[in-house]
Amino acid sequence: MQDLDPDTLARLFTRDDGSFLCARWDRPIVPVVFGVTDETLATVKGAIEGVVMLAGHRMAETDPEQGANLFLFFLRDWTDLEAVPDLDRLLGGAGVTSDLVSRLQAADAHHYRSFRFEASGAIRAGFVFLRIAGPLAEMPAEDLALAEAVQMILTWSEGAFRDRSPLAQAGGVAVLRPAVAAVIRAAYDPVLPVAATEPAHGLRLFARALKGDAA
Hints:
Number of helices: 8
Largest sheet: 4 strands, mixed
CATH class of the largest domain: Alpha Beta
Helix content: 25-40%
Distance between the termini: 12 Å
Structural class: alpha/beta
CATH architecture of the largest domain: 2-Layer Sandwich
Radius of gyration: 17 Å
Order of helices and strands: HEEHEHHEEHHEEHEH
């Protein structure tokens, strides 16, 4: 935990507009992945399973209300989204996909993530869109899969990993930075609420992360 203090931890969940949100999944995670080979599919699902196990959470074969609840799309171009059946419905309404594609193209973005939430504030569904070009195309599939698995397990802020990846290298293999792993475990402590909007929640996370790191 040498690279983490309470203020740094709070910033991991403080959005660019100054609001704070730390939410976790409550229902079991059911991922579905589009646009990859069978080999890469196994890599992506394996990374998700590893992070879910780290959190002490669980996965399932199906979500009784939604079928799946974590959707990952690997794309060559943002316009590919317009060919995805029922994506408007999944994202919340007519015309949403076209507007999103326009914004992502204008920003020359490489990724986009979005969540829907339960009444309790817990994550209900997650959407991850990755345009495999530029820096993403150069990442090993294992590294990309692990990084995305980390990003979907909690509602990190936009800038949480802007300057520093959640991953480190150990013997040439990508692993989670210990501080990031400790925060994930702490956020899934059943004593803590499934969602919090007050920055003081960062202190509670830090105390549990520190305790877990010392265990």
